Amino acid sequence: MSAHASTVARVEGVLARISAACIFIASCALVVLIVTFGWLVFGRYVLNVTPTWVEQLALVLVGYIAFLGAAAGIHEDSHLGVTMFRDALGEPARAAVTIAVDLVLAGFGAVMFLAGIDLMRFGWDTLLPMLNIPLSFRTLSEVLCGGLIVLFAGTRAILQILTFPRSDRAATDEGR
């Protein structure tokens, strides 16, 4: 294996571990969400005392579940996409379109990251009712997702750009 290929493999391994961490954290948040709603039902119908903090915690947790799951979906390339037109193209055009899509995704992630930072600054002095934590904890998931989308899609685009000419040369060398 060449030095270039081992570097690409190491980068992809690090990104895979980050993606796995996103899935793990989102899964833990889902478990906490289910347990807290169980407590809500128990409190409301058995104890006749409704825990009012569950709704606010659910709003925070759903954001982390959705945004971290979406970022992992970008890494796993399992996000929603229409690939019919891309798949109909020849190999060089298909690779170029794939790179362009990843660059657009990275740009979207950058906008999401920057807008999320503005939202975090805006809500830092406001506390979430019932939880007494800054409102910014709700928008932190958006910032994380935006940054992770930039990391995942941007790195994939860069790696594809770096390997694009090599894969063409390798294909022509094998054809000889």
TrEMBL record:
One annotated GO molecular function is: transmembrane transporter activity
Kindly state which keywords UniProt assigns to this record, in alphabetical order: Cell inner membrane, Cell membrane, Membrane, Transmembrane, Transmembrane helix, Transport
Q: Which residues cross the membrane?
A: 20-41, 53-74, 95-117, 137-159
Q: Which residues form the Tripartite ATP-independent periplasmic transporters DctQ component domain?
A: 34-159
The positions making up the signal sequence are none
Task: Note the topology in the membrane.
Answer: Multi-pass membrane protein
Instruction: Give the UniProt family note.
Output: Belongs to the TRAP transporter small permease family.
Q: What is this protein called?
A: TRAP transporter small permease protein
Source organism of the structure: Aurantimonas marianensis
